[in-house]
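Notebook entry, structure prediction.
Reason for the run: the old model in the group folder had no record of what sequence produced it. Starting over properly, with the input documented here first.
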Amino acid sequence: MKSMELTFTGSFTQQEPIPSEAIARATEVLQGGRLHRYNTVEGETAEAALLESEFRDYMGSRYCLAVASGGYALTTALRASGLQQGTAVLTNAFTLSPVPGAIVAAGGKPVLVDVTEDLVIDLNHLSIQIATSGARLLLLSHMRGHIVDMEALMVLCNRESVTVIEDCAHTMGAAWNGVKSGRFGLAGCYSTQTYKHLNSGEGGLIVSDDPKFMARATILSGSYMLYDHHPAGPPAEIFTDIRLSTPNCSGRMDNLRASILRPQLARLGANCARWNARYCAVAAELNNVPGIRLPQRPEKEQFVASSIQFLVSELDPATITDFLSHCGKRGVELKWFGASEPIAFTSRYQSWGYIDPPSLPTTDAVLDKLCDMRLPLTFSLDDCSLIGAIIRDCVLATRESIVDGAIHVDKSSGDP
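New structure, fully documented this time:
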C-alpha cells in the first residue's frame, strides 16, 4: 500500500509504563509511609539522597540536588548564583516559557538572544547582547535537544565574565565533544517531567562542582538545616554562614518520586539510543525532501532526540496551516511555532506578557517555519518511518497545490 493511502493511529503523548522494579520500590516506600526526604529511620538513606548520589556519579559532578520540578531547579540555580533583583539575564529567544519564567521568578530581567536555523543560540548575537545589556549571567536553554558549540560559547562567556547555567531539560544523556550536557557552566538543571528522559510526573535535578553555590541551592530547596542528610552535597562546614543568610523556599523532591526515578536512571543510556533510532527513522524520510529543512547536527554533538524539528521553508502561514491539517487528518500531530496565539507548549517570545518583547526578525523567520513533533518510545521504528513518509507526502502535496494554484491564476488572467 502506498504511503499516501496510510494513516497513523498511535498517540503522541503516551509514554512507556514505569519499569516494574520502579513500581516495586515505590510500593515499598508507600508501605513505609516515609515519603518526606528527611523522614528516615536510623541507618536509612532516603531515596532522594540515593538518587542524588547516583545522578552525581552518572554526571561526573561533585554535587547533585533533587528538587520538585525542572522549573524550580532553574529558579533555584539562578538564586543560588547570586542573582540580584532587576539584573539582566541572557537566554535563548527560542525556548519554552518556564525558562524566562524562572528568570522573572528569581527577580531577573530576561534579555533574549537570537536563534539560528539549526535551533541553537546565535553566538554572534549573544556577543552583541552581552555588550549592550551588561548581563553577566546566561541561562542557556538546549531547547528541544539542540546543543550549540559549547567550546566556542564558553570561550566567549569566560572572556566576558558571563556565568553560564545550562537548562538541560531536553538533553539529559546528551553531550558535546564527550562532555555531558550540563557540565560546562556553573550548574546544569534537569527535568523529570513526564515528557522528559526520566519520568516522575514532575521533578528536577541540579548538578554543580561549586560548593558554595550548591550549599545555597540546598538551603533554598528547604533543607531545614538537615544539610547533613545530603551525601551528594557539600561538606557541613560550607554551610556555616550560608545556612543563616539563605531563605528556605521549599521545593524538595520526595522519596516516592526518587524511588521511581532510580531504576529509570539505570536504563537512560539504552533509552537514549532508542530515541535516536526513532529520530533517524523519521529523518531518513525527510532528508532531501524539497521544502523541508532539518537542523544540522555537528559531529561533536552527541544528541538525544526524543523529538524532531524541521522547517517548512517554502510555505507561508496559510499553506503551513493546510499542511498541518493534512498531517492531522492522517494521524500525525505536529506543533507549529509560527501560530499567532500560543497553543499548548509552543508559545513564542511575543506571547510572554511578563517581559518586554524585543524585535528579533532573524528568530521570527525561523519560528514562522518551525514544526515540532514528539517521538515517544511507544512508537516502533516502523511507526516512525510511516510518520516520516506521511509528513513527506503532505509537504509535497501542499507544494504541488501551490504550483497548481499559481498556474490556474496565470491562465485565468489571460496572459499568454
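Summary: The longest helix spans residues 381-412.
The old model has been moved to the deprecated folder.
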